What we know:
The chain has 294 residues and is mainly alpha-helical. It has helices at 2-14, 16-27, 32-43, 48-57, 63-76, 82-87, 94-107, 113-122, 125-137, 143-153, 156-169, 175-182, 187-200, 206-215, 219-235, 241-250, 254-265, 269-272, 284-293. Helix 2 runs antiparallel to helix 3 and helix 12 (175-182) runs antiparallel to helix 13 (187-200).
Amino acid sequence: ETVRIRALAGLAALDGKSAVPALTAEVESTDPRMQTAAIRLLGGIPGADTTQVMVDEFPKLPAAGQVLLLGALANRGDDSASPLAMRSLVSPAPEVRAAGLMALGKLGNRSNVVLLAQRAAIGQGAEQIAARKSLSGLSGAGVDAAIVAAIGSASGKVKAELIMAAGERGAANAADTLVKAAQEPDPDVHREAVRALKNVAGAAQVPALLDLLLKASTVPDRRDVAQALASALRRSQPAPVGAVLAAYQTTSATEARLSLIEVLGQTSSDEVLLLRGHRRFLHAPQRRQLLGIV
């Protein structure tokens, strides 16, 4: 067996095209080691005709072999195999569906954005993980724009998945759309939008984030918004610290004031020192926290 694998590897290295028939025959082998080696070697032989051979072999294989073949096709990066990845999503085997979703991350394009978000929203386990990973890693022209557009028209869990992907991708062009989503009453959409803003928000989003912080009614929400606001300030040159100070002075809510102090504590020390002149506005617990920061 080891000798056969070495022989096939040698043939593939010497003349890949000539090795295709022998490798194709072994793709259907009942020996897992031989099948795995054949699929791996076949996947390394360039050319659209080799891709087509692999696609043709797919329906002949059991689930385990189909998973291997989808992985090899994805690694080839030949988008002509994308239709096969799409067809695999109706397989009765969950591992094949997961492999198909994973393959779309490398073979797909902006037209697959909504499908991947839908699969992430309804999927479980490996399928959900694969859909999320592919959506956040999808490449090609217009993917970020397609995600932003889809956020505007989606709702519920699908919208939350699109928002999560925008954050994972660091899609700066999604920032305003995410601010709008963060103001929605759907708790999942709001939560994911605030978290995504940690990765994309900048100076333009500071006023909206301040408003969200002042309106936050729970500790987790206030913490997430504060983190997003601090990230936005760090990305801003110069950071609009004056807006944070103004918000601090106009609110009497202790929780909000403490969060604003924490936000300033995550910016540069020069900006934090501006707050020294406003200590008279602090009650004793806030003063102790400020002193701990500066």
